[in-house]
Amino acid sequence: MNENSLGISQQTIISNARDEIVPAKRFLQYFASLSATLGALASGMVLGWTSSAGPDGINLQTVYNIPISADEFSWIGSLTALGSLSMSIPIGILTDLIGRKYSMLLMVVPFTVGWLLIILANTVPMFYIGRFITGISGGAFCVVAPMYTAEIAESSIRGSLGSYFQLLLTVGILLSYSLGIAMNMRYLSIVSAIMPLIFFCVFVFMPETPIYYLKKGNDQSARESLIKLRGVEYDVDNELQAQREVLEETRNRKISFLASLKSKAALKGFVIAYGLMFFQQFSGVNTVIFYASDIFEQTGADLEPSLSSIIVGAMQVIAVFVSTLIIDRLGRRILLLGSIIFMFLSSFTLGLYFYLVQVHVDVNSIKWLPLTAVCLFIIMFSLGFGPIPWMMVGEIFAPEVKGIAASSASLLNWLLVFIITKFYNDLKLSINISGTFWLFSGVCAVGIFFVYFLVPETKGKSLEEIQREFNDS
């Protein structure tokens, strides 16, 4: 009788062990996400490169022995955004044709060609073409890398993995600022060209996303991909079935762009999304990132402009990291409001400082002010208006219009980046640098009212709750 009891007990233990749910392994999910966002680091180096070129590209002129006017340098700075803009829609089509993984790997080709043109440049048009082509790759990564990360991650860690893109982008900007002190512009371009190759060598071994395979009707490859990401002991059937159901529901509910505007919820979503993108860019943030050294050169501060740029870049990295920790605790709306209020104050203060310099007031006692104001601006931007508009695009739209919304918001964002970076020097010449920053502060002031009256809090709300509130409001 004791032997029988023992046998039953052992059988029960074995049966329970078999029924026990084995959690998914996460190492490859983290590693694949970091690998994908190495492309973001390469994109960040494209954005930070202009700052290391110095005021009106003086460092470029010295190293390459090519005369560059202020207007030509503004084109060199802004054509990257135009390249990114041109890729916003095509990259979405490409990801559905050849997959997320191979779309990113393919972007290494224009990255390399663009940097080679810049490295070997002997005329200004070669800089133009090189910057435009590197912008194509940078813009593509801004769309595909977050998509890839979202599709390979478990829901419980999707938020933290999704934050890697913005974090690595700011690390790339900081790296470009730092290397710009240690080496000349040609060597900086060579190092920048190597980063996409490092990305290729690491990312080529990562799996394609299961969702892409399911969209193509390749269930076996989807299963193999998910097993690789979650581990062989994890039961992938439930997750695969849930993904199939979501895809099927999206296909059934898919409607045209014009039809989507008939919904009150969709219309309000587009107003909020486009408004946030407008205020994000017309706050002047990219003039600070692209022309940081130029701005600090004009302050007359004792600290080297290039060193000031590094401090700003470091503050940005730290602030983005902090944002990933607090965004789900404090909420989107409070961070957006706090962000744009301090951006307004920082821009106004910078404008005031430059005005005092312009009218020959002695500013020796407050030479610390510009660096402090720019650091505060970047920190508050990175806590709120940097990451949150992109996050909210994914939260405030129903699945059937989310693809259209993301593509059009990305297109608008890069168009605004181009306008701001191209015409920054023209603004500076027409209304002085003080007037330029006062203009940015005025836009931020309007943005405060926009956020307060129109932007809802989405923290902790389901998609259905958000859509219901939008339709009822």
Structure description:
With 473 residues, this protein is an all-alpha fold. The model is unreliable at 1-19 (pLDDT under 50). The radius of gyration is 25 Å and the shape is globular. The protein folds into two domains: 25-206, MFS general substrate transporter like domains (Growth Hormone, Chain: A); 259-473, MFS general substrate transporter like domains (Growth Hormone, Chain: A, Up-down Bundle). The longest helix is centred in the last third of the chain and has 56 residues, at 399-454. The protein contains 25 helices and no strands. Helices cover 81% and strands 0% of the residues.
List the helices and strands and how they pair.
Blueprint: H1 2-19, H2 27-36, H3 38-52, H4 58-64, H5 70-87, H6 90-98, H7 100-106, H8 108-119, H9 124-152, H10 158-162, H11 164-182, H12 185-203, H13 210-215, H14 219-230, H15 237-253, H16 257-260, H17 264-282, H18 285-290, H19 292-299, H20 305-330, H21 332-358, H22 369-385, H23 388-393, H24 399-454, H25 463-472
Helix pairs in contact: 2-9, 3-9, 3-11, 3-12, 5-9, 5-24, 6-7, 7-9, 8-9, 8-12, 11-20, 17-24, 17-25, 19-20, 20-22, 21-22, 21-24
Anisotropy-based shape:
globular
Task: Enter the CATH topology name of the largest domain.
Answer: Growth Hormone, Chain: A
CATH homologous superfamily grouping of the largest domain: MFS general substrate transporter like domains
Helical coverage, percent range: over 70%
Strand element count: 0
Helix-strand pattern: HHHHHHHHHHHHHHHHHHHHHHHHH
Name the beta content range: under 5%
